[in-house]
Amino acid sequence: MEAAFRTTRRSFLTGAAVCALVASARAETPIIVSSKLDIEGALLGRMILIALSRAGLPVENRLLLGPTAILRQALLSGAIDLYPEYTGNAAFFFNDDADPVWRNAKKGYERAASLDLARNHLVWLTPAPADNNWVIAMPRALAASLHLTSLADFARWVNADGPIKLAASAEFVESPAGLPAFEEAYGFKLNAMQLLVLSGGETSATCKAAADGISGVNAAMAYGTDGALIALDLIALDDDKHVQPVYAPAPVVRESTLAQYPQIAPLLAPVFAGLDLSTLRRLNAKIAVDGQEAAKVAETYLESQGLLK
How many structural domains does the chain have? Predict the structure, then answer.
């Protein structure tokens, strides 16, 4: 009799009651938000986290999880649900970096969105109009004294045994999209003694090393949106050959998560649409130069733009 009761009760629970329980459990499933290790990753991740939580959506903070490879795998595996990525990185996710489409902001975004949705059930949401591509920067006074304004000038100086020491992240040094792409296009090669490789992707550290001459450093890996470039009086050398793809930041979310919480897309669209190059540089500078916390900078900006519920 006891066994029969359990069976009958189980059958009942697989009906309307279970549907209600499942719906309730799904409604409480948090959106796991993550970001990369650098300052802009922290800033954009905080913006996402704050915008969603203030709108009443359940979120879980997994910010500053790691570099691109770790974040990408975490998203694909379902360990996280959402993080800010850059359109140019999709060229390498899909082994398609030779296609010039990635050097066009609109077409590159559309290609990234199309490929990731079809192959991985990932959705690229509204991108920012900024381009956060990698650059090589030098102290302005030093670059002027050496007549260096472009990467072509830089390559000639390096090849003439100029005393170069570049501070960079391991990702920049190792990624085909980073230093190797510049070396191949402009015909120079830096050896291990000419590099100071720092853990993480923190460009405030690389820029400061170049500005202060720490350990002989006189050049730095930086991003186009770095606030430290102006604050530390560094000049980004021109990439005349347009080696870099366009790296427009955009939230990337799992399709299943977006289906569960469709509010994500309209909540984040105005947040990213307003982040042009000057705005991102200014916000990044508040963190890197002024020492403000990313959470405070993000919240203050979102409130000033009327983007919080």
Answer: 2
β-partners of residue 33 are 61, 82
Q: Going residue by residue through the chain (309 aa), what tens digit of pLDDT does each one get? A: 333 332 322 233 344 444 443 444 445 799 999 999 888 999 999 999 999 999 999 999 999 999 999 999 999 999 999 999 999 999 999 999 889 999 899 999 999 999 999 999 999 999 999 999 899 999 999 999 999 999 999 999 999 999 999 999 998 999 887 999 999 999 999 999 999 999 776 788 899 999 999 999 999 999 889 888 888 999 999 998 988 889 999 999 999 999 999 999 999 999 999 999 889 989 998 998 889 999 999 999 999 999 997
φ, ψ (nearest 5 deg) of residue 127: -85, 165
For residue 266, the surrounding DSSP H or E stretch is: helix 264-273
Same domain, 20 and 124: yes
- The reply to whether 199 falls in a domain is yes
Nearest-5° Cα angle at 171, 168 to 172:
50
Q: What is the 3-state secondary structure (H, E, C) of 220-245?
A: EEEECCCCHHHHCCEEECECCCCCCC
User: Are residue 18 and residue 96 in the same domain, yes or no?
Assistant: yes
Within this chain, do residues 13 and 124 fall inside the same structural domain, yes or no? yes
Residue ranges of E strands in 17-163: 31-34, 59-62, 82-86, 122-124, 134-139
Burial 229-243 (b: 16+ CB within 10 A, else e): bebbebbbbebeeeb
What is the span of the domain harbouring residue 27?
Answer: 9-131+248-304
Burial of 5 (0-12, 13-18, 19+ CB in 10 A): exposed
pTM over 0.85: no
